[in-house]
Design a protein that fits this description.
Length: 170
């Protein structure tokens, strides 16, 4: 395959690699960078491609390996190595200490959000949270099981909306 044919094939397949790049990075700019890195690596290593094999699979492999390599570099960059006599990682999870302030605020917000629920939603939700089965809740509240499921679903939805600020926090 000539350089021109190879370049044309790369260009043709680049659009099918974009969704895979998005799946890996979950960011448009990072996906574009990953796609560009993949194409550059593929073009510079075109002599390693065996004609007659699956070019698309080869490109997917390059992309996956590039992503993994970049991720490992990022993790290593974020790790500080102490070169004193102790020779240990400063940010090791074994020595992680938290002050629980964030957790305390979150629990207060969760309790406040639950308290704001109307009783028709709060009661079945709290019973389910405490371990009651749907049929047990239906028997105790003397309502149909479908109503129990619906009210718990609505309570979860309302809580999710009210607590959206905690969605992507650790």
């Amino acid at each position: 395959m000539t350089t021109l044919e190879f370049s044309y094939s790369l260009n043709k397949l680049s659009s099918s690699l974009k969704p895979f790049a998005m799946k890996l990075t979950r960011d448009v700019d990072d996906a574009n960078d990953l796609l560009q890195d993949t194409m550059v690596k593929a073009f510079t290593n075109r002599d390693k491609f065996t004609e007659g094999t699956n070019l698309k699979a080869w490109l997917y492999t390059i992309m996956k390996n590039t992503f993994i390599t970049n991720y490992q570099k990022m993790v290593r960059r974020g790790t500080f190595v102490d070169t004193t006599d102790n020779l240990h990682y400063i940010n090791s999870s074994d020595s992680l200490i938290e002050n629980d302030a964030y957790g305390s605020f979150a629990m207060d917000d969760i309790q406040e959000a639950i308290d704001k629920l109307e009783d028709v939603y709060k009661t079945p939700f709290m019973m389910h949270f405490r371990g009651f089965k749907y049929h047990e809740i239906a028997d105790r509240l003397q309502i149909p099981i479908g109503t129990v499921k619906n009210r718990i679903h609505i309570a979860r939805k309302l809580l999710k909306e009210d607590l959206f600020v905690y969605r992507h926090k650790n």
